[in-house]
Amino acid sequence: MHEPTPPSSAADRSDHHEPGGRPAGPRQPLPSPPLPAPSVPSPTPPLSPPFPPRATDQTRHSPAPGPAGVGPGQPPRGGPPPPGPYGQSGASGPARQPGTQAPHRPFDLPPTHTTLICVALPALAISTDQGQLTGRGLEGFYRAGRRVLSRCQIRVAGREPLAIQARMTAADRARFVGTLRASPQAGPDPDVVVERVRHADGTERITLHSASLRPLRVPVEVALATDLADLAAIASGSTGPELPASVHESGLRWTGTTGRSSVTADPPPADMLASAGLLRWEFELPPGGSRSLELRVRSDGTGPARAVGRTATSSLAAARASGDDPRVEPLLRTSIEDLQALQLRDPAHPSDTHLAAGAPWRCGLAPAEALAAARMTLPLGTRLASGILRTLARTQLRAPGPRSGMIPGPRRDAGPHLPPGCTGTEATLLFPALLAEARRWGLPEQETEVLLPAAERCLTWLLTTVGDGTYLHYPHPDGPVRCETQAHAHRAALLGADLLQDFGRPGAAELRRWAQALRGAFREEFWIDDLGGGRPAAARAPDGSVVPHLGATAAHLLDTGLLGGGELAPGLLDRVQTEQLARLLGGPAMDSGWGLRGLGAKEAGYNPFGHRSGAVRVHETAVAVAGLAAAGYEKEAASLLRGILAAAEAFGHRLPEMYAGVQRTDGSAPLPHPAACRPAATAAAAGVLLPIALAGIRPDAPAGTLTLRPVHSAPLGELVLTGLRVAGAPFSVRVSRLGLAMVEEAADGLQLGA
């Protein structure tokens, strides 16, 4: 699927447009509303007035493109930039690096935090908690990024139902309940319940339940309309007027320059008024009885949409959790449902599925997010990881040049202290690491070997781009050296070397030598000594000075990756530095009580709603929890874990990609971010990683062994995980209240290691 996204600047576009990498050194590359009296039978009166058409300016926003680095799901930051870290400060902000864009006037994305988003990609249904689709904001049914129905408003007996409840019942459907008084004899109590079940696939079932003691004859009218606008136009407020409708079979049809859509009804309506977009019925409701009608929305004659991941052969295992903490089970279940709904199939290679980054803004493939989510979901099987790896291998750049071997990706805003980063760099480094770890979890050797050449090209790009230097500079050779980029590169080198060695391919020794040199330099040059015990630098500026702010990206220093025999790769920090980082991440400046802030609360430029400058990003919080737990800092890991579980409960166990980093207090609730994707692939995958981190499962399928390193403090009490996949077979584990782990189900021949 190629989902349209909000207008963005060149800094959001593919990595194909970025400046070249660092010149290669001498290293040799690796190989390849009135009350009627409906109880008396009467002809259906016309609505007076009819449903008002949507005002075309009610949701209009400035169509100006966003500032550099603002992409789908990333709202622009307002106001002047803070002082820059590269020797220039004041109103002019940080000195811009070559190849970056000057900021533009921002536009306002329609808010998503008050919407219910049903997902079955390539289809969406977006609603408010009122249930009626009014055409305002993002409301409507979507197919492949185009709004095929924008209004669907119901009146019963001439009145709109009073909205009572709205909730998601699954990733792809929502249920809305409204009530009304349909007869004067009802008194103050409603006697008709209107239930609407809305599916992302374009189906809506409307059921009327009567609680009256006498038969009711109630007129029902549904007003329909669409503008056939694409999501990018809706995001920028540049949609056109509603289109005229025509009668089509048992419903209505709309045709525009960009396509057509239709709605059919079952049972067929008694009357259809195309000029007003109305369908009419008259239902007789016996005492205590019910009547239903179903609407089916279609685009260009296509059938219903069905999420790839919800087929009988889903690429994700249906794992379950139970235990003392009741929040873990719904979080894991909802996370898996969201991941299934976000899966897409490669049209040219139908056997390969991959993940969209999130709805509604990022319903297409984002390589770095897809790879990161796949890593976190390896305990649910390796099929999704292998599909994503094969899909991205086909996008890998192979033409000679400084970017040969890269996985292309857009740039990403990096907050107030750094220029935009390159997600293509992150994806290129994640590729070999995911392949190596997927093999440990049970990816067959034959599949691994097929993907090995693409991993080798990623590693060749890494060494070539580093050249004679020590650090990986990218996206520009004269730009800052980023802390998290070195962490990704170091992990890729060590896990990639392990992979090459196991398959008898050359290049492992050179990768390990570079990783060792990087560790030595990083521990000296990236560590800032201060009275508080020191901290890792966020980056080193081109002049050699450090960018000292503390942010959530430092959590990636704890994510070293899984090697053979259940061992983790060494980290860039030594033991003392790691302990200090753990203390900082667990301190009040970083731990908001709801998760890890993107930027410390005491840092210049901190904004609790800033998507890279203070908001809690679920992915990085999960990385921190897993890394802290693996390194033995259980108190800090448990605090962040409890915070994100509390946030998940407040969000109905469907975690958004981010939310405000305001401090948690007694009786408070997390503040949603108005432009966050929900669901989001990395946030849903984090819901899988968190309980797995408590169990400390470290498999080595090629060696036929498995090691358990549970969190001994058992912060959630007893935890039982069933239906996981290790070495291609079901796997279950129990962690007791004493922090002891026991395997309850595993593949035949899988030996439990020390």
Alpha-beta classification: alpha+beta
Mean of residue pLDDT? 86
Q: Separation of termini? A: 45 Å
The fraction of residues in strands falls at 15-25%
Taking Cα atoms only, what radius of gyration do you get, to the nearest Å? 27 Å
Write the layout of secondary structure elements.
Blueprint (H helix, E strand, L loop, with lengths): L114 E6 L2 E6 L4 E2 L5 E4 L2 E4 L1 E6 L5 E9 L2 E8 L11 E8 L3 E8 L5 E10 L5 H6 L8 E4 L2 E6 L2 E8 L4 E3 L4 E8 L4 E10 L20 E4 L4 H14 L1 E4 L2 E10 L3 E4 L1 H10 L6 H11 L17 E2 L8 E2 H19 L3 H22 L14 E2 H20 L5 H18 L1 E2 L6 E2 L2 E2 L5 E2 L27 H11 L30 E2 H14 L2 H17 L7 E2 L21 H15 L1 E4 L4 E4 L10 E8 L2 E7 L5 E5 L5 E2 L2
Parallel strand pairs: 32-36
Antiparallel strand pairs: 1-2, 2-4, 3-6, 4-5, 6-11, 7-8, 8-9, 9-10, 10-17, 11-16, 12-13, 13-14, 14-17, 15-16, 18-33, 19-20, 20-21, 22-23, 24-27, 25-26, 27-28, 29-30, 31-32, 33-34, 34-35
Helix pairs in contact: 2-12, 3-4, 3-5, 3-12, 4-6, 5-6, 5-7, 6-7, 7-8, 10-11, 10-12
What distinguishing features does this structure have?
single chain; five-stranded antiparallel sheet; 754 residues; alpha+beta; disordered N terminus
Give a description of the structure.
The protein is α+β, with helices and mostly antiparallel strands and 754 residues long. Helix content is 23%, strand content 24%. Helix 3 packs antiparallel against helix 4 (383-393), helix 4 (383-393) crosses helix 6 and helix 5 (423-441) runs antiparallel to helix 6. Residues 1-106 have low confidence and may be disordered.
